[in-house]
Every structure is written in C-alpha cells, then in structure tokens.
Design a protein that fits this description.
Elements: E1 4-6, H1 14-21, H2 23-54, H3 61-74, E2 81-83, H4 85-96, E3 98-101, E4 104-109, E5 112-118, H5 123-126, E6 134-138, E7 141-142, H6 148-155, E8 162-168, E9 175-180, E10 182-185, E11 189-194, E12 197-202, H7 209-224, E13 230-234, H8 243-251, E14 258-264, E15 271-274, E16 286-290, H9 297-307, E17 312-315, E18 323-329, E19 335-344, E20 360-361, H10 407-427
Parallel strand pairs: 12-13, 13-16, 16-17, 17-20
Antiparallel strand pairs: 1-18, 2-19, 3-10, 4-5, 5-6, 6-7, 6-8, 8-9, 11-12, 14-15, 14-19, 18-19
C-alpha cells in the first residue's frame, strides 16, 4: 500500500570536523537519550497496566492503545493523527471524490472544531455552514475534551440521519443548525462562461482535479473561441487536498519556474516542483479568487501564480496552512497522518498562520441600488435633438443588468474587462 501526500540540508565543511572531533561525547549522549526513552516507555507501560487493573470500569486494551497513539500524534499539531482502518479507508475514498458525511473540512482550535470550509453542494453547504464557524456542540454534547478524530467520528453516521450542530459565528449569538447526513460526491471542477470571461471553480484537490480542469478549459475555449478575454480561477472555500494535484493545476498555467518547494527534517522529505512548458489559458489575463476557506493546496496554487505574476490574486486572506501531511499505511492497523514537511512558495514564503494576502482585497458584499432623486437628462429637454445613427429608444437594447449576487466575482470580471479594454487601446 503506497503513501500519499496531502497539501496539507544545511552545509557541511566544519560540521564534518566537529562530528569527528566529538564522536565520543555524542555517542555517550546518544546512549543517555536512549536510556531516557526506555525509562519513559517503562512509565507508559506502568500507567497502562494500572489503568487496566484499577480503572473504575473495564476498558478495552485496543481502545487504550489507539487513544495513546492518537494523543501522541495530536499533541504535535492539529493535522497529525492516527487513522483507524475504517478512517483510513474513508480517507482513500475522499481523495477519489466520494465519501459519506456532512461535507466540511475541519480543524481544531481552542478545543472546539473549526470549519476550514464547507464543500460545494454538500449537506453542510446547503445548511449554511460557513468557513470560520466554530462547532461547539454535537446533538447538545460539548466537543470540549474530544480529539478532532473523535469529533469527526460523531459527525459521521447513517445516510439520511440528522445531527444538530451548535455554531459559534463571529458577530452572532450561538445558534443550532440541523444537518442531514448524506453520501458526499464531489465534482471538483465546474466551469461556465461569464460574457467573454471564462470561469472555472475548483472545490477540492482530489484525483479527478487535473482531468476536470483540462475538460473545463476545453469547454470554455470551445464556447468563447478567440473572443475570450481572460479567466477567473475560483479557489474560494477550497480546503485543499492532494499536493501533486496542486502542483499539476499550477503547472497548467505556468510556462516555467518553480511551483512550490517542500522542506522536511531529512533530505528525503525535501523536494522542489517545477513547471513544464504549456499554458491552458494561452497567456490570457487571470484572476484567482481566494478567501479564508482557501487552504493548503489552494494556497500553493495561489502562491505560485502570484509569485510568478501570472495572475492577480483577489478576495480576502487565505487560511494559512503551510504544512504537508503524509498518509503512512500501517498494515493491519489503519494509517498514520503525519506532518512531514513545510511548503514554501517560489519566492520562499511560508504561508503558515499568515496565509496568502490578495493583491487586491475585496470583501464579499451585497450590492443594492441606492435610492437617488430623478435628474433631468438631455433627452428630457424640450426640442432636444436626436442622436443620428443610433436606434430609437424603442429599438434599443436595455443595458440595465440586475445587481450581481457574487460581488467578488463581479469585481474579478470587471478587472479582466478593464485589462482587455486597455490592451486594445494600446494595440491600436
């Protein structure tokens, strides 16, 4: 069973001399460290036996060991954990694009479950769960004291069954949301045409993403042809996924250069990924939309396109997960999800805790038409001349459009239209 990675060496010289000179003391220290480790393992064994013999109720040995392992891993960072055989199998299904549950990517903060992002067209999305929400109770029971894995297990359940989530959201009193569990099937890429602008949304980075992106770009180019003036790549509320898919999506729009580097504890965990020639957008202007729900693999793509000045990044600051997790199968015992490296954008930036800052900050907003007093126009004046060569009012097409529901997308499209207009004027 192979490992898979989620997007999610120093010099020598005098160092060699020092190692040779201090071999004796280093070995002595090493032996002392080993002795200390054995003492701690003896302590663990002693506590384990006392729990088995003296705890008020009989406990299952396997549950105790699993809890100890998970405690060891979760103490490292919010993204390392033990996966039971069932959880490991569900993880494999999730990366293929189909799994059961609510449809939210979560982490843990201050003891509560924090929503990184709801996934499009899932029960959580339909119920109105938002990125940044804190889940404090599940069916009335607090999540305090639960590990992230335990909380996630409680949110899973029979398809069609309901669970009541207590949500704490900034600016609101805590409130309850009922969500019906369902089989979550993720279509990771969607596309459409907005005027002369191509729009492609990537909801997650799974095994289908690159193939879906290529198909989406082919559809957009087929519909617009030479009239296409730019592309919006929407990574909002995308919680991440597979590292290799993030690299592949970045490569799809870059002709050359580094995409991302990952640096781990050992040389085997350090790697650089570089772009190959070819750009699916044929060099047309691009806007990448991000927000607080854009995490991990999404930040790799946004960071690469931003550093290479291939796209304008628009929206709000991203989530800020700059680490890489490797799923390591343990034959007969599930798997271990372990943080093995940190990743860096082509310019050497780490996004850990800081996220990607957009080139143009645009908060999501609701557009409403302001009430303004009627003003007299030239056409209202008596005996005003007609505009020769222009259709009369009866034959003219109205330019009025309804206010866009997605303000950030509207601003992205406006920017691409402005760039296209400018380029035409410069060319002429």
């Amino acid at each position: 069973m192979k490992k898979f990675v989620l997007a999610a060496s120093l010099g020598c010289g005098l160092g060699i001399w020092a190692a040779i000179q201090f071999t004796g003391p280093v070995l002595a220290q090493s032996n002392a460290d080993k002795a200390s480790v054995y003492e701690q393992l003896d302590l663990f064994g002693d506590i384990f036996e006392r729990i088995r013999a003296q705890y008020v109720e009989e406990v299952d040995d396997a549950d105790l060991i699993e809890a100890a392992i998970n405690g060891m891993l979760t103490s490292l960072d919010p993204h390392s954990s033990y996966l039971s055989p069932k959880d490991a199998e569900e993880m494999r299904f999730q990366t293929r694009g189909e799994f059961g549950g609510l449809g939210i990517e979560v982490t843990q903060q201050d003891g509560f479950v924090k929503v990184v992002s709801p996934i499009d067209d899932t029960p959580a999305d339909a119920a109105g769960i938002e990125a940044g929400d804190f889940i404090t109770h599940l069916d009335g029971d607090t999540v305090l004291g639960l590990t992230l894995s335990e909380a996630v297990d409680k949110m899973r359940g029979r398809v069609g069954s309901d669970i009541n989530l207590t949500i704490r959201r900034e600016g609101r009193d805590p409130f309850d949301v009922a969500v019906t569990r369902d089989v979550v099937r993720i279509k990771s890429v969607r596309s459409r045409v907005e005027g002369k602008v191509g729009y492609v949304r990537i909801t997650t980075f799974n095994e289908q993403t690159t193939t879906g992106l290529e198909a989406a770009m082919a559809d957009v180019k087929s519909e617009l042809g030479d009239d296409m003036i730019g592309l919006v790549l929407d990574l909002r509320r995308n919680p991440g996924g597979l590292l290799n898919e993030a690299v592949s999506v970045s490569d799809a729009f870059l002709e050359r250069g580094e995409i991302v580097s990952q640096r781990g504890r050992s040389a085997d965990d350090s790697q650089r990924f570089n772009a190959k020639k070819g750009d699916l957008a044929n060099g047309l202007p691009m806007v990448v939309l991000i927000n607080g729900g854009s995490a991990s693999a999404s930040e790799i793509v946004a960071g690469a396109l931003q550093d290479h000045k291939r796209a304008v990044i628009m929206g709000t600051e991203s989530f800020g997960k700059g680490s890489v997790q490797t799923i390591m199968p343990i034959p007969g015992h599930g798997a271990m999800r372990l943080t093995t490296a940190a990743y860096f954008t082509p310019s050497g930036r780490s996004v850990q805790k800081t996220g990607i800052m957009p080139d143009i900050i645009v908060e999501q907003a609701r557009i409403e038409t302001a009430d303004t007093p009627e003003r007299v126009r030239e056409s209202d004046l008596r005996n005003a001349r007609d505009n020769e060569g222009v259709e009369s009012e009866d034959g003219a097409q109205s330019t009025e459009t309804s206010a866009p529901e997605d303000y950030q997308l509207a601003r992205a499209i406006d920017l691409l239209k402005g760039i296209a207009t400018y380029n035409v004027r410069v060319t002429n």
